[in-house]
């Protein structure tokens, strides 16, 4: 683990066929460190669009603070999860991008590719994603600016949702 203070203690996750094995590895890693994992695909994978929808809906509703989605590249599940209001899914392929997705963008869903990432890297990415707070530890940006920028993103999201609802 990255530090001794982990604030996220329960997460939701799901995977398609190409992300299923990596999901199981990350799930076992997190549960061994005391994280309660709700696995929406415990016995068999589902289609990437169903996976992105299932996790996106549960994070959007506030049922879970953070989620993980897995497919072959991470792209399909990322696209679908991001369709939900309040979901900021980040497709990451490194520990540093997983960290910065939290610091800069307050991402709440991490998308990973089962044919892209090694198990070691995926476990480290999951750790940093859960251990990193928004606007902390990034000397290149002002935390006040990051907070204001996130507010603008949320305002944009609300405008888009309103426009889409009127169509």
UniProtKB/TrEMBL annotation:
Region forming the signal peptide: none
GO molecular function: intramolecular oxidoreductase activity, interconverting aldoses and ketoses
Top-level taxon of the source organism: Bacteria
Keywords, comma-separated and alphabetical: Isomerase
Gene Ontology biological process terms from the UniProt entry: carbohydrate metabolic process
Cited SUPFAM superfamilies: Ribose/Galactose isomerase RpiB/AlsB
KW Isomerase (keyword) present: yes
Keyword Endoplasmic reticulum among record annotations: no
Family, similarity comment: Belongs to the LacAB/RpiB family.
PANTHER family: DNA DAMAGE-REPAIR_TOLERATION PROTEIN DRT102 (PTHR30345:SF0), RIBOSE-5-PHOSPHATE ISOMERASE B (PTHR30345)
Protein name per its UniProtKB record: Ribose 5-phosphate isomerase B
Lineage start: Bacteria, Bacillati, Actinomycetota, Actinomycetes, Bifidobacteriales
């Amino acid at each position: 683990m990255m530090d001794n203070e982990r604030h996220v203690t329960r997460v939701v996750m799901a995977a398609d066929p190409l992300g299923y094995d990596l999901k199981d590895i990350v799930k076992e890693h997190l549960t061994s460190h005391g994280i309660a994992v709700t696995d929406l695909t415990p016995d068999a994978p589902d289609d990437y669009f169903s996976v992105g929808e299932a996790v996106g809906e549960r994070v959007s509703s506030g049922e879970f603070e953070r989620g993980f989605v897995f497919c072959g590249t991470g792209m399909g599940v990322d696209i679908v999860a991001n369709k939900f209001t309040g979901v900021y899914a980040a497709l990451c392929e490194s520990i540093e991008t997983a960290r910065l997705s939290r610091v800069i963008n307050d991402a709440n869903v991490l998308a990973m590719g089962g044919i892209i990432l090694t198990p070691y890297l995926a476990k480290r990415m999951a750790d940093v994603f859960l251990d990193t707070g928004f606007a902390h530890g990034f000397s290149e940006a002002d935390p006040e600016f990051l907070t204001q920028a996130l507010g603008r993103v949320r305002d944009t999201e609300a405008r888009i949702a309103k426009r889409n609802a009127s169509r």
